Amino acid sequence: MSSTAGQVIKCRAAVAWEAGKPLVIEEVEVAPPQANEVRVKILFTSLCHTDVYFWEAKGQTPLFPRIFGHEAGGIVESVGEGVTDLKPGDHVLPVFTGECKECRHCKSEESNMCDLLRINTDRGVMLSDGKTRFSKNGQPIYHFVGTSTFSEYTVIHVGCLAKINPAAPLDKVCLLSCGISTGLGATLNVAKPKKGQSVAVFGLGAVGLAAAEGARIAGASRIIGVDLNSSHFEQAKKFGVTEFVNPKDHDKPVQQVLAEMTDGGVDRAVECTGSIQAMISAFECVHDGWGVAVLVGVPNKDDSFMTHPMNLLNERTLKGTFFGNYKPRTDIPDVVEKYMNKELELDKFITHAVTFSEINKAFEYMLHGKSIRCIIRMDA
Ligand SMILES: NC(=O)c1ccc[n+]([C@@H]2O[C@H](COP(=O)([O-])OP(=O)(O)OC[C@H]3O[C@@H](n4cnc5c(N)ncnc54)[C@H](O)[C@@H]3O)[C@@H](O)[C@H]2O)c1
Ligand SMILES: [Zn+2]
Ligand SMILES: [Zn+2]
Q1: How many domains does the chain contain in total?
Q2: Which ligand is the nearest neighbour of the Cα of 48?
Q3: 247: closest CA among 238, 256, 234?
Q4: What is the pLDDT of residues 197-246, one digit of tens each?
Q5: Which ligand is nearest to the CA of 115?
Q6: Residue 373 falls in the annotated catalytic set
Q7: Range(s) of the domain holding residue 154
């Protein structure tokens, strides 16, 4: 047992006091884990668009003060009652969506949409007692997607922690906590291209580049990157993207451009933009008879998908995926192994690194589109 087990821990956390205002490094109190909870020492975390989106709080009811952060790697400090799967010292990746292993979804081989621990961006408290484990001078500080990794210590439901190989470097594999697994799984688990097939990837941000990495691993012969921002093309070459299309360079719909490039359509398309137009194009650019399109991007609230039903009757398949269809506890340890045996490349996603005290710089890099991923070191 660690010497801090059962005690309140005082540590540094980056607190968002108000929407859109720089985070402030504060000393906070982190309560011990309750039943089915685990307290984790975070060693590395990185910033994802979802943190920025909820920090800006433009589209949702604001919930502040809050500790953001959901892509991270850490070590178990102590466990609450009833936790048998994890013990102090285990290396873990927190995941914003969980796996209780008991519900219909967890028991189904086909789903990772756990009834109990599915992502809930509105909840700022722990499930068991509706309270926060963070406070400062008695004032509660809200959690974010059950992970709140912008803190040296955090409390997480055991179902939202993947136990991984302790030999895996946490400063790299922390990326598998969210965006990279999402794009990778969208290709490998859902689009499932066969060796030698063509894959179009719409959107060349971190998620799209991870989808391209999946296509490279699957042995795709052509990986066609589609983005409205041509400045992403150079960087995407490192991810195996072989050809580029900017819809703005053409006066016909991009699905037609792709069909002409590929003798009737690509075999697989993975949409990673959040743009409804790109979603429709991604579906309509796949080959009839066998083409599969996978939607990953999160659309705007009022969007609706429109296509002629004939496009489906002509034997095209449209699918959507959440966290790349990976079950966090069951599957993420194996994705870490893919990195360990050099099948999966992660280092190329890391464009920046900052110390915890410089965390606001990571926001700047992302807001200005400079970074794919920026690693934040908690001990510095
Ligand atoms: N389904 C899930 O589980 C899941 C998980 C994480 C992220 N996401 C979503 O995935 C999407 C991508 O995330 P990201 O972090 O890579 O975002 P990002 O903003 O870094 O990248 C999106 C890219 O799409 C491009 N783009 C926008 N509209 C386009 C269009 N009409 N045609 C072609 N390209 C276009 C942009 O120029 C940009 O390069 C987001 O919508 C995000 O919310 C989904
Ligand atoms: Zn994320
Ligand atoms: Zn479940």
Answers
A1: 2
A2: 2
A3: 256
A4: 999 999 999 999 999 999 999 999 999 999 999 999 999 999 999 999 99
A5: 3
A6: yes
A7: 9-175+346-377
